[in-house]
Amino acid sequence: LAKTTQPISMDSYEGQEVNITCSHNNIATNDYITWYQQFPSQGPRFIIQGYKTKVTNEVASLFIPADRKSSTLSLPRVSLSDTAVYYCLVGDIGQGGKLIFGQGTELSVKP
Amino acid sequence: EAEVAQSPRYKITEKSQAVAFWCDPISGHATLYWYRQILGQGPELLVQFQDESVVDDSQLPKDRFSAERLKGVDSTLKIQPAELGDSAMYLCASSLPNRHEQFFGPGTRLTVL
After folding, report:
1. Chain A residue with the nearest C-alpha to that of B56
2. Å between B89 CA and nearest CA of chain A
3. Which of A12, A29, A54, A82 lies 20 to 30 Å from B24 when distance is taken between CA atoms?
4. pLDDT at residue B97 above 90?
5. Which 3 state secondary structure label does DSSP give A5?
6. What integer pLDDT is reported at residue B98 of this predicted model?
7. How far apart are CA B25 and CA B105, in angstroms?
8. Can you tell me the distance from the alpha carbon of B113 to that of A95, in angstroms, rounded to the nearest whole number?
9. Could you tell me if B43 and B33 are in contact, meaning their C-beta atoms sit under 8 angstroms apart?
10. Per-residue confidence of chain A (111 residues) as pLDDT tens digits?
């Protein structure tokens, strides 16, 4: 199982772009990178998933360099409601693997 | 929008008592997960079902925890006897087979006194 490392916490201000980087040096060939968001007292919510290069949806972008040893979740123009914990997970469900949640990054957005 | 249902939302029990949590996944989701989340930590997978079969229960403390999904739809997680260290949020999630996108329920907050 690929181990992930991400910052424990980050601070930002409303309207700024936030980039959260996750390191996964021993990512396997078949592993995907998945990000979840969790608000207090709620279950995590899927944000985005990618394998390589760049993926974008209505909520975020995910940048993955060619060596895939890291990934960056980009949140454009954050608001106070983006204050949450963000988890980076690496694995391959399709090959019988499982996704492991680490400690996550606690993002605090200030006015 | 379909959601994962869990009950109860909150449970307070005394040490050595039995507790049970119920989860109803999104219709059509064959894969069901139970997680435990201690405050300040990420969710820890306890058990994974594919239909009615257990796929992974390597982190389930089998001396006191049990989980079942008899008809491959809803599921029950039981703790007997509860210990102080079991106080946590218990989360249920479901997904389509082999998909990374899991849909989580609101969780059950367990407090053991």
Report:
1. A98
2. 8
3. A82
4. no
5. strand
6. 80
7. 8
8. 41
9. no
10. 668 999 999 999 999 999 999 999 999 898 999 999 999 989 999 999 999 989 999 999 999 999 999 999 999 999 999 999 999 999 887 666 677 888 899 999 999
Contact call for A100 and B91, based on CB within 8 A: no
Q: Which residue has the tokens 């999630």?
A: B93
CB within 8 Å of A89: residues ≥ 6 apart:
A4, A33, A34, A35, A36, A99, A100, A101, A102, B100
Those residues with Cβ within 8 angstroms of residue B54's Cβ, 6 or more apart along the chain or in another chain: B47, B48, B67
* B98: Cα separation from own chain's centroid: 19
What order do you get walking across the sheet with A18-23 strand by strand? A18-23, A70-75, A61-64, A53-56
Beta carbons of A44 and B43 less than 8 Å apart: yes
B51-91 residue pLDDT tens: 999 999 999 999 999 999 988 899 999 999 999 999 999 99
CB contact under 8 A, B107 and A87: no
Q: Is A15 left (phi over 0), alpha (psi -120 to 50) or beta?
A: left
As a whole number of angstroms, the distance between CA A88 and CA A5 comes to 8
Instruction: For an interface test with A, give the residue of B31, B38, B41, B100 to mutate (most A CBs within 10 A).
Output: B100
